[in-house]
Each structure stands twice: as structure tokens, then as C-alpha cells.
Write a structure and sequence with these properties.
Blueprint (H helix, E strand, L loop, with lengths): L18 H6 L9 E3 L15 E2 L5 E2 L3 E3 L8 H10 L2 E4 L5 H14 L16 H11 L4 E4 L8 E5 L1 H4 L20 E2 L4 H11 L3 E5 L5 E6 H9 L14 E4 L5 H10 L4 E4 L7 H13 L4 E7 L2 H10 L3 E4 L9 H5 L5 H15 L3 E4 L5 H9 L4 E4 L14 E3 L2 E7 L4 H4 L2 H6 L14 E5 L4 H19 L4 H10 L4 E3 L2 H7 L16
Parallel strand pairs: 4-5, 4-16, 5-11, 8-9, 11-12, 12-13, 13-14, 14-15, 15-16
Antiparallel strand pairs: 1-20, 2-3, 6-7, 9-10, 17-18, 18-19
Helix pairs in contact: 2-3, 2-16, 3-8, 10-12, 13-16
């Protein structure tokens, strides 16, 4: 062989099947039924870019979306996932105000310049600060003359001012710090950071010429910026978050309130999204709030997908019955094998440049890689994140095992609350037929350990496939360059751990 000549194959020797050939075979298949044949490697795993579109206008750094389930996603999960580069969808088994408050917690969690800081007056009490701490998770509060942004800044209250005060009814004017270091309106973020560094203060108020508070910069936010460089943020450096809504008329108010509180992505939460109700709602939202991206679904066919795209969907949620706690396919005789559903809807949506979010059936790293390889832009996961520290609910023990509750939104238990019933269109029915179950999952620890592990696994998977990023993976799929192979039950068994008396998985979701 001549020196310097490429050793890469000409590509004429193609084993396996193209995506079109794989999915034209019967019956429908899911992630366990096939493998992706390896490609040519000329890059390292750290060179793989996992950035992807979760909707037309929202980009995330890792292809992971948390499901809007009441045992999976509230503010703590959404904050954690956004810091790590994904996005969380707050469930709607909550009152309108409670769901909006969850969204607001995420939006207020981290900022460059906090342009809408919560303020109090000197006449408020330490107990008012306690309530803010409980609701939003921070305890440093600027004090203005009348407790609004319309009057002069006169002080600030921090932990150091109130930690050891037993009388929580004391007015803030008795404990607040009055000698303040501030910066003028127009200061750049690097300049503000430098002032914070030199002053060793936790907060830097930004004031106008009249001394009125216009913004706030937080030292803890600067630290988070360094720790979480992949964080999913909006143009104002606030974490992004989504929220689930239903098609029912009374959720119009919910939509208005969520948008007013800063939600980035609305997810129309319907088990079967191909309905006049969802199409009408999509058109209504896009006409009234064209700036808000809407994820529509759930769908599993091209006909469903095209109808919602034409109605204005900015992304599609794909899956009907593949979730670990979902029994829709058995109960309702409706649905589709998940890999087949993602492939065909993504093939249609690709023409419209609308992202497809693979919802359900993802149990490990390989399933995420396969969901992306058959056309998904991201995976929406429930059971994979349930049981983590950031998931809602308290831990309990059963037979010595530490567990957290995990339930389907169509379980009878979840449908007793409004959100689950709305999603499955049974809110007003006297007899409710369950399409999901309730159960428990093992403690997974924190997503701050778990999710980076998953994503590093996905990078390795894309390296083996020979694709440096998700767009090139999709291009390879649609051109036929990406090759697949069906595998028998025996091959599935052989591809997993076998022949051992016992073994220990390195981490949940790794198999």
C-alpha cells in the first residue's frame, strides 16, 4: 500500500439494511430488535457533539428530555436537567398556580443579570424571607423603600443577617445590611463579575441614576456557569423549562399563566394527539402566542404527524404505549412498536425540519443511541430518571431496598388527580379505565452523576457508529449510509450478560 493512502473502505461493501429496508419488514420493531452496524472511526468520544433541536427554536446540549409525570418532573428535576444541558417538562397534575410556581422556580434559579429580582420592603419581616427561601430556594433579598422596583434600593438581607435571629417577626429594617456595594446600569457582565470577585459579596445590585434597583448579579450563578458549561439557557441567561398542558378548555388559563411566568416550551399532553381538540389548540396557541414553541403529540404514524405539523407543531412527541408503566397497547389495542413509530414519523417530520422526540421505551444508553439513529432528535425519559434524588417524592424502604414511587399518568392513582385524567380524556367519566400502573423504582442517586454517565455512553455509541453529531447521524440514516441488522431472540440474549453466576452492573441504565 502506498504511503499516505487512506485505509478507509470505498463504501461499496455494504452489509446489513438501510433504515428503509429495516422498517419495511413486518412486524413493527422496537429498540431491542435491531443493532446498528459499526462505521469508520477517525475521532475521539470527546469530539462527539450531542447538541440537538428539541423544537424549531430551542436547542439543547444533550438529547435528553424529562417526561411530564408527577413522579418524574417538578422544578428540582427541571433545574438539574437544564444545568446538565437537557430540558425538563413540568407535569400538570398541579393547580395552575402551583405549576406556574414550579416554572418560575426554574426561571429564577440561575441568571447572568436577574432583571426581575424579588424585592421586599423594610416593613416586611424575616418570616417573609423564610417564605421566599422555601418557595424559590434563595435567601438574599434586596430591600427597596416600598418593596417594589419603583423606589430606591435601601438595603439587602442575606443569610448572615437573619440566620441566628429567633424572632422571625422582626421587621427587615432592623436586620438588613445598609452599606451596599452596587454597580450602575449599563455595567457589563464581566465587569459585574469582577466587582463581585473583589468585594467578596454574594450579590451585586445594579441601580439606575436615581438609585432604583434594575437588576441583580449573583456570585453563586457565576460559580454555576463554570460548573455547568452545557446549561440550557434562554437569551437572558435563564434556565429553560417546559410545561405540560391539556386540550381541555379550562387549560386556556393555564397556558396564559405559564407564558406569563416565562415558560419556554409548551407540551400538549395527550396520549393520542391526532384529534380536533389538539389541532384547534395548536392553531390557537400559534396565532395568539407565535413566539412560544409547542411540542405536540403523542403520535406514531405519518398521517398523525403531518396533521399536527400543518397545525403549527414545533416538535413532535412520539410514542403510544412503550413506557415501562404504560399498558395502553394491551388495554386499548392501539399504539405502535416504538422504533417503527419513531422512524416513520421522523422520516415525515425531517422534510419539514420539525424535531421528533422519542417518548418511551428507553431503558439504557443503547436505547438512547438507537432512538437517535432512527430519526429522533432527543429521547424523552420517565423511568430512567424516576427514583433519582431530583425526582418528586420521598424515599421509602421495602425489604431493605431504598425506593421511590413511580406511576403512570394513566394509572388509577394518577387519574384521581386532574392531570392524568385530562391526558387520557377521561376527566369527566365516572368509570375510568387504567392505561398505566403504579409501582416503585430503586434509588438511582443524583442525576448529576447519572446523566453525565449516560451521555458519555451515547458519545461512545456515536463514535462506534462513525458519526460526530446528531445531524450527521440523521443524514446517514436518510441517505442509506447508516446500516442496521435485525437480531434474533438468541442474539439478544447473547448480546447481554450471560453465563455468569452473578454480576454487578456498573450503573443503572448502562446495560
Amino acid at each position: 500500500m502506498a504511503r499516505g493512502k487512506s485505509v478507509r473502505s470505498s463504501g461499496k461493501l455494504q452489509d446489513g439494511l438501510s433504515g428503509e429496508e429495516l422498517f419495511s419488514k413486518k412486524p413493527g420493531i422496537t429498540y431491542k430488535d435491531f443493532l446498528i452496524l459499526p462505521g469508520y472511526i477517525d475521532f475521539a468520544p470527546h469530539e462527539v457533539n450531542l447538541e440537538t433541536q428539541v423544537s424549531r427554536n430551542i436547542r439543547i446540549k444533550i438529547p435528553l428530555v424529562s417526561s411530564p409525570m408527577d413522579t418524574v418532573t417538578e422544578s428540582q428535576m427541571a433545574i438539574g436537567l437544564a444545568l446538565l444541558g437537557g430540558i425538563g417538562i413540568i407535569h400538570n397534575n398541579l393547580s395552575i398556580e402551583d405549576q406556574a410556581a414550579q416554572v418560575e422556580k426554574v426561571k429564577r434559579f440561575e441568571n447572568g443579570f436577574i432583571t426581575d429580582p424579588i424585592v421586599l420592603s423594610p416593613r416586611h419581616t424575616i418570616a417573609d424571607v423564610d417564605r421566599i427561601t422555601e418557595q424559590y430556594g434563595f435567601s438574599s433579598v434586596p430591600i427597596t423603600e416600598d418593596g417594589t422596583l419603583q423606589t430606591k434600593l435601601v438595603g439587602i438581607v442575606t443569610n448572615r443577617d437573619i440566620d441566628f435571629e429567633r424572632d422571625r417577626s422582626l421587621p427587615l429594617e432592623q436586620v438588613m445590611t445598609r452599606e451596599l456595594i452596587t454597580a450602575p446600569r449599563g455595567v457589563s457582565l464581566p465587569e459585574a463579575n469582577e466587582i463581585l470577585r473583589k468585594s467578596k459579596k454574594g450579590k451585586l445590585p445594579i441601580v439606575d441614576k436615581e438609585g432604583k434597583l434594575v437588576a441583580l448579579v449573583s456570585r453563586t450563578d457565576l460559580v454555576k456557569n463554570k460548573e455547568y458549561p452545557l446549561a440550557t439557557k434562554d437569551e437572558n441567561k435563564r434556565l429553560r423549562v417546559g410545561a405540560a398542558v391539556s386540550t381541555h378548555p379550562h387549560d386556556r388559563e393555564r397556558i396564559e399563566v405559564l407564558i406569563a411566568r416565562g415558560v419556554d416550551l409548551l407540551v400538549i399532553d395527550s396520549a393520542q394527539g391526532y384529534s380536533k381538540y389538539q389541532i384547534e389548540l395548536l392553531k390557537e396557541i400559534k396565532k395568539k402566542y407565535p413566539e412560544i414553541d409547542v411540542m405536540a403529540g403523542n403520535v406514531v404514524t405519518r398521517e398523525q404527524a403531518e396533521a399536527l405539523i400543518r397545525a403549527g407543531a414545533d416538535s413532535l412527541r412520539v410514542g403510544m404505549g412503550p413506557g415501562s408503566i404504560c399498558i395502553t397497547q394491551d388495554t386499548m389495542a392501539c399504539g405502535r412498536a416504538q422504533a417503527t413509530a419513531v422512524y416513520y414519523t421522523a422520516k415525515l417530520a425531517y422534510k419539514y425540519k420539525v424535531p421528533v422526540i422519542a417518548d418511551g421505551g428507553i431503558t439504557n444508553i443503547g436505547d438512547i443511541a438507537k432512538a437517535l439513529a432512527v430519526g429522533g432528535s432527543a429521547g424523552m425519559v420517565g423511568s430512567l430518571l424516576a427514583g433519582s434524588k431530583e425526582a418528586p417524592g420521598e424515599y421509602f424502604y421495602e425489604n431493605g431496598v431504598r425506593l421511590k414511587k413511580f406511576r403512570g399518568m394513566a394509572s388509577l392513582e394518577a387519574m384521581e388527580a386532574a392531570g392524568g385524567a385530562r391526558r387520557y380524556n377521561v376527566e369527566d367519566q365516572k368509570i375510568k379505565v387504567a392505561q398505566g400502573v403504579s409501582g416503585a423504582v430503586v434509588d438511582k442517586g443524583s442525576i448529576f452523576d447519572f446523566v453525565p454517565y449516560l451521555m458519555q455512553g451515547v458519545r461512545h455509541a456515536l463514535q462506534d457508529i462513525g458519526c460526530r453529531d446528531i445531524p450527521s447521524l440523521h443524514q446517514a440514516l436518510h441517505s442509506g449510509k447508516l446500516r442496521f441488522e435485525l437480531r434474533s431472540i438468541a442474539a439478544q440474549v447473547q448480546g447481554g450478560v450471560h453465563g455468569l453466576y452473578s454480576y454487578k452492573k456498573p450503573i443503572i441504565g448502562a446495560d
